[in-house]
Amino acid sequence: MTGVPRQGQALAGVVFASVAVAAAAGAGTPLLALYRSTWDFALWQLTAAFSIYACTLLATLLVAGSLSDHLGRRPVLLGALGLMILASCLFLIDDGIEWVLVARALQGVATGAATSTFTAAIIELSSARRRPLMTVVTSAAPIGGLALGAVLTGASLDVVADSTRFVFALLIVSFVIGILAVHAARETSACVPGAIASLRPQLMVPHPARPVFAAVAPLVAAGWMFSGLFLGLGPTFDHVILGVDSGAGNGAFVALQPAAAALFGIPFARRPARRAASLGALLMLAGAALAVAGLLTAQLALVAIGAIVGGAGQGAGFGSSLRLLGDAADSTDRGGLFSAAYLVAYTAYGLPVLVAGWAADNFDLRIVLLVYGTVVAALSVWALTGLLLHRRRPWHRTAERVRR
């Protein structure tokens, strides 16, 4: 009996570690604005520092996204948390944009290896009764972690003399706690041959899950692209357009959308997954329209409302997408499938921000934001249309027949 409470504590520790990994990425967002004002580099370099994280993350997902299906969950998570500690130590050097770029790149590699593995491990460590809720928790953890990191860093900029060292010292302690939790958790995936072959870049979507994946991919992309708007471009437009100048205000503002996604996503776990996904697409469409309207008219309150509404849509849409995908996979291919979902997510999170950063140096910022918001809205409509067209299709029954 003592093993059950111990594994429950280990599961809580693994969830905590997944939040800490995402918080490390979110912590860099308010710092990038500070670094730009201190070191006076171009806007494209700021968005490059943001996007290099997503680029290395994507490369790692392509190469190592299904590695934990072969080596087991624990070895991959332990290695990723160790790499996060190294990246945090590089942030402590803090004397040039070059070190920041290297640290962000290492964060991306570690997050790419850990994110889908955390999702698979948490679901597999959960009981059958709690699995639907924990699936939504895994979707909220990376989004909520981004918000937590941004708020923590933004607040520390106003109250701590050396905020960078304060924040990343806390994160290093968090990663050590995560290592202990992962070590204590039981292994949930058997070690099977093919680890080296799995490193060949590929998108792992098992045949039974392909109809589900095709339907939810635009919704995943819309939500994470909307997060990128605030976490990647927020430090620029909140100052230039909305007049937000304090570190705490900047951190709170850029964290508003991912915080809403994390908080509002959990209640949707009680709704049928496909219905929650459709509602998420509607909320994403409304949130994008409100946020862009607020940016074009320089109304902070309207942008904030759009961030909350769209954030709720991302939380509902991403959590329900993972539920639909999780039901269409088993432990032999779940890591690779979640890796494909996060590949879509982080492509939408990083690449559009990089393009928008270049465009903002050459065109009016408001025009760039209008185009950006229009793409998010179009993806939301695409997702909603796909979900409604497929609402009568028995995805999971089909998946079971293919497996047999």
UniProtKB/TrEMBL annotation:
It comes from the Bacteria. It holds the Pfam family MFS_1. The keyword Transmembrane helix applies. Keywords: Cell membrane, Membrane, Transmembrane, Transmembrane helix, Transport. The keyword Repeat does not apply. It is a multi-pass membrane protein. The chain crosses the membrane at residues 42-64, 76-93, 99-121, 133-154, 166-185, 212-231, 251-269, 276-296, 302-325, 337-359, 365-389. Residues 10-391 form the Major facilitator superfamily (MFS) profile domain. It is found in: Cell membrane. PANTHER family: MAJOR FACILITATOR SUPERFAMILY MFS_1, RESISTANCE PROTEIN MDTM, PUTATIVE-RELATED-RELATED. This is MFS transporter. The lineage of its organism: Bacteria, Bacillati, Actinomycetota, Actinomycetes, Micrococcales.
